[in-house]
Amino acid sequence: MNESNTSSVLVTGASGRTGREILRELNDTSFHVRALTRSATNRESLREAGVDEVVIGDLLEQSDARRAVENCDAILFAAGSSLSTGLLRPSRVVDGDGVLNLVEAAVREDVGTFVFQSSIGVGDSRLGMPLWARLIVLRWTVREKERAERALQDSGLEYVVIRPGWLTDDPATNDLLITEGGGRMTGSVPRADVASLMVTALSTPDVLNRTYEVVARDTAEQFNPSRQTTVEWNHNAPSRT
Ligand SMILES: NC(=O)c1ccc[n+]([C@@H]2O[C@H](COP(=O)([O-])OP(=O)(O)OC[C@H]3O[C@@H](n4cnc5c(N)ncnc54)[C@H](OP(=O)(O)O)[C@@H]3O)[C@@H](O)[C@H]2O)c1
């Protein structure tokens, strides 16, 4: 664990589209931000985006996962494999083994909170993903993310699982429908909203050890009101002084 007064957060998938939004959110906070990327060519742009420390590594390598999480207090996991994974079906993907490696490393390091970006369609939210996506295009990814969610939920770490609907690059709506524990909700959500929720989770104790589905309210379909969450998300992360 980090022994300074500043909490240190690892962002995986920091060079990706949700990852970039997370970095934007973290810019206004006092967190020491470490970003993981597989490619050294991302180092400069990550620095420009406000990252304090860049670690080059691949989550499919256990030693890289351990190095990435050293002295970290929290993890924001926004990595994921590309759509072609569903067709190529590689034996190991970041959505499964990559998460498992990081969970194992986080337990060893005694990390405080692990926020995992999963997907509607995973586990008991499966009815929120169209059948063609669940059974054909994303079948492989969904199965791996299920394995990852279970490993995290069973790890003993404090976790938050956030399952967004289809991701868009639209500006944040700040008007989300958040449900807990499956339900028949489907819709889309800007990455900016998901990033905001993930960072907010770090300062909202009530959401710990819970699994949420999230879509932008104006896109929500098949909503089951009984599962709507009542938690107040605390949007006051520790700020830069
Ligand atoms: N697309 C959708 O509609 C949708 C819906 C729900 C959920 N999701 C999930 O949301 C997450 C974020 O999606 P996104 O589209 O914002 O991300 P993205 O732009 O595709 O970026 C993915 C990131 O994952 C990192 N990555 C991939 N393999 C890695 C590995 N082996 N080790 C370390 N990092 C690795 C890449 O980083 P480097 O290349 O820098 O290493 C990349 O920055 C994914 O898990 C995705 O499955 C997507």
From TrEMBL:
The keyword Isomerase applies. Residues 13-205 form the NAD(P)-binding domain. GO terms for molecular function: isomerase activity. Coiled coil: none annotated. The keyword Isomerase applies. It comes from Natrialba asiatica (strain ATCC 700177 / DSM 12278 / JCM 9576 / FERM P-10747 / NBRC 102637 / 172P1). InterPro entries: NAD(P)-bd_dom, NAD(P)-bd_dom_sf. Keywords: Isomerase. Pfam families: NAD_binding_10. This is 3-beta hydroxysteroid dehydrogenase/isomerase family protein.
